[in-house]
Design brief:
With 261 residues, the protein is α/β, with parallel strands linked by helices. The chain has helices spanning 2-10, 15-23, 34-44, 79-88, 106-113, 128-135, 166-169, 180-189, 221-224, 236-243, 251-259, and strands at residues 50-54, 71-76, 93-97, 119-122, 142-146, 156-157, 192-197, 203-208, 249-250.
């Protein structure tokens, strides 16, 4: 009943009033321990006060604790999430509603290139690897990217698809994104080190190596890997069994395959 009422309100002019009322009782925050991790990293490393994050939930996103003091760009394909951000967040944060593809991502590159980017956070449940591959050249100090623990330690990503929708790819909704190993490989060859993993087994944190000191140690995926909790109690290998027949890209061989294609 409550969810039905909420869905109805979203389709009416009452939506703004609903959001503003909710603002009195709820503030945007990270979903798990991402705020604590970011706080530690910002204290340890010299991080410019700017961020780009996509996709995001209006009330939950990784860089939520930074708004108000940092310049930010939030991007999502859901108008409701962007509406929340526009009504709730301060003017220093720009929010855009757009379905991201490699053909529409240029404005993020422009935003990042015009400033010394502090944090790039990616969570789109689909083309995460390919967006990071494109944007890593903007050289943020810290990268946060969701990994798919169902892929285990295999160095794989789902193939790029501009219309990627995990709810339509497989009924388990577990076929999306890239493994921790795949993201670590991409980060490493571009001068970044895996530095932390969220306790929920969802987000990986990478730091640009030129910011690191002798006291900082790069983590290996096989040591840092954490499982995401599934409500049915299944483990990553069991989840992968459901989707192993679907197409995957081995990112350690991708460039060689591309050069010889």
């Amino acid at each position: 009943m409550i969810s039905e009422l909420k869905s109805f309100i979203k389709r009416t002019p009452l939506i703004d009033l609903y959001i503003l009322l909710k603002k009195r009782f709820k503030k945007p925050a990270a979903q798990n321990d991402e705020t604590e991790i970011l706080t530690r990293l910002i204290r340890r490393f010299e991080v410019p006060h700017s961020f780009v994050e996509f996709g995001f939930s209006g009330w939950e996103f990784n860089c939520a604790s930074l708004v108000g003091e940092w310049a930010g760009l939030l991007v999502d394909g859901d108008p409701y999430n962007v509406r929340i951000a526009n009504l709730v967040l301060p003017k220093g944060v720009t929010s855009k509603c757009i379905w991201l593809t490699l053909d529409t991502i240029d404005f993020i590159e422009t935003f990042a290139m015009k400033r010394n980017l502090g944090i790039l956070s990616i969570d789109v449940d689909g083309n995460d690897y390919w967006f990071l591959d494109r944007l890593i050249k903007t050289r943020p100090a810290i990268i946060i990217c969701e990994y798919n623990s169902s892929f285990g330690l295999k160095p794989i990503s789902t193939p790029y698809d501009p219309d990627f929708d995990r709810t339509k790819k497989h009924d388990s909704w577990t076929y999306f994104g890239a493994s921790l190993t795949a993201l670590s490989h991409l980060a490493s060859v571009n001068g970044y080190s895996l530095i932390e993993v969220s306790n929920s087994g969802v987000n990986a944190f990478f730091v640009r190596r030129d910011l690191m000191t002798v006291d900082d140690h790069e983590l290996k995926p096989e040591h840092a890997f954490r499982e995401k909790y599934f409500h049915d109690g299944t483990r990553p290998s069991q989840q992968f069994e459901k989707i192993k027949h679907l197409p995957f890209i081995d990112v350690t061989k991708y460039r060689d395959q591309e050069e010889h294609s």
